[in-house]
Amino acid sequence: MKRTLLTLLCTLLCASSFADEGMWLPGLIRERIGDMRSKGFRLTAEDVYSVNRASMKDAVVSVGGFCTGEIVSDRGLLLTNHHCGYPAIQRLSSVDHDYLTHGFWALSDTEELPAEGLFVRILVRMEEVTDRLAAGETAAEIAAAAEREGTGYRAAVEPMYYGNQHFLFVYEQFDDVRLVGAPPSSIGKFGGDTDNWMWPRHTGDFSVFRIYASPDNRPAAYSPENVPYRPRRHFAVSARGAEEGAFTMIYGFPGNTQQYILSDAVEYVQHRSDPMKIDLRTQRLDLIAAAQEADPAVRIKYAAKHALIANPWKKWQGEVIGLERLGTADRKRDYERRFAAWAADKPEYAHLLDSMRAAYAAAAEPFFIAELINETGRTIELALLAEQNLLRRRAAAAGTPWSEAKPELEKQYLKLYDDYDAALDRRLAKCVLHGLAHYYPGGMPRKMQDEIDRAGGTIDAYVDALYDRSPSVSRETAEAADTAALAADPVLRLRKLFSFGPEGIGRGMMLRRNLSDVPSIERWYRPYLRALRAFDPGRAFFPDANSTLRVAYGSVRGYDYADGEYHKPLTTLDGLIAKDNPAIYDYDIPQSLRDLHASGDYGRWSALIDGRRTVPVCFLADNQTTGGNSGSPVLNARGELIGINFDRTWRSTMSDIEFDPELCRNIAVDIRYVLTVIDRIGGAGRLIDEMTIR
Ligand code: ARG
Ligand code: ASP
Q1: How far is the CA of 81 from the centre of ligand 2 (A)?
Q2: Is 454 a domain residue?
């Protein structure tokens, strides 16, 4: 009786707490369409995904495999985030044409700039191939056969539920993608690292590209003969916006979640991994910020590095707080206790949890060390430079200098030095080696201590000796050194110690994205997930994000930030102007935006908000998203584009492990702000003319 009551209670409570959770496979969206429609969606499963006719999936693209984008015209016009287009915009920029700083707008097709190396993929179809694999076909054979079906086809077989099922994904890949427009960073990155992962937000995080195809509309390598791609489908844009409570859906390529991991794994993240990484990065960021403060040149050189270090650093802090607040580890332990009771009389599963716990116990320490290596010695740039100098010299000696044979490598190499400050790097090296001694179980590892002892016994003396002697501290000294001197650089020894191989200070464990991805642990998740689905049939299972195409849905929604403090789901140009401050780099907007606000003449894309006429800038919704969803279309109930997803709030970042519908929010840039910037700041009205505006 008690048990039944408990189960009933859990069905009620647990079910409601899973309300808008989920990243669903578009090919199986029929199973969710009833729920979607009950929440306001007006279209059908066939509209979302179809192999037989044009559907929404034909307008969603993977951008370079790390972000998402959406097609918004019948001429292949593509929207994604500014931070997704960033590497391409940077590569196309030079001192004379600094598109990152000043923005870029192609005023005709011929001005559009080929973004070499950037590709997009559109899903042709997906299908389950679990049975074909069981019948003996290999994943490689299945993919290869699919790739022969069409020009530019790329295929992959992806595991779902830890390999309990496999799906084939067939994509059409386009390699001729051109930059069409980008706002200045002061709009596209407004708020910088300060506002990153935060709400209220005023970032115009978008950029514009175009897909080009051969004259017969097939994927083709760059050619001046190529023409704008004619997509099967593009998204119409809604200029009406969406009220709080309105249905939203996100169609994109989320990268990685781990919804099903054991409490052991949660505790590892929360108590060991995240705190160590946060602490070490706090120290590094403090050193970088101080150097940036002291020297404007260093500020510019280290801006991108600071952003790369700070983005996960800030996310992890939110994650720890979120896991604590939700009590995820306790809840999971409870769930596991009930699972164990259920499994006790099932020989197949009875010992499963014990095996998993033992695997975690064995792998946690070596994996922690792998993560520690990655956060300490592997961040020392001098060691990387020394390695690069030697490789580059050897390539030159072999008659294949990078400058001719590998221009991309040469460019990266030069950039490394352009953005390098040896004095700061020396301080950072000392910092991370102290961090290593602090976190390495039992103190500084023997092999490293031997090196330090040889240099006088202290970490600082050892690092000073390295930086005083290494020819790689500057490009000039590296170029002046002979090959023998480059090869004898003692910092190369440090590089070796911080490799994951047998010569290193690790315990032979490779670094992986998560502890649970270590093969000795991961292998148990396949039977565990199979068991869970039998144990908990009422749960709405969806496969963890793995960079395959997914649908998430929910609604535009604010949240309770603190007692008595509700965060509304919409920000406006007025709020952006209130933050504007020419004295603070991250908040210094272009004069043209100030002028636009001062004129009050916003044009077609303004809205009446709380009785004021203004331009909506960003909005919140409760769709489940993660890294990789950046650039995803945010769609309304009619499948029209209302925003471009680019972030989550700080306190929702534990959603990669546990999603909380009360608190988890994704952040999108409102399409009306995007249109305003294109039109009024970029003067690129021709792009708006080719969109379908509703
Ligand atoms: N937090 C967002 C995402 O994870 C945006 C990152 C880019 N912006 C920045 N200021 N670093 O990737
Ligand atoms: N900003 C992330 C991205 O780049 C999205 C997120 O983590 O919410 O994909």
Answers
A1: 10
A2: yes
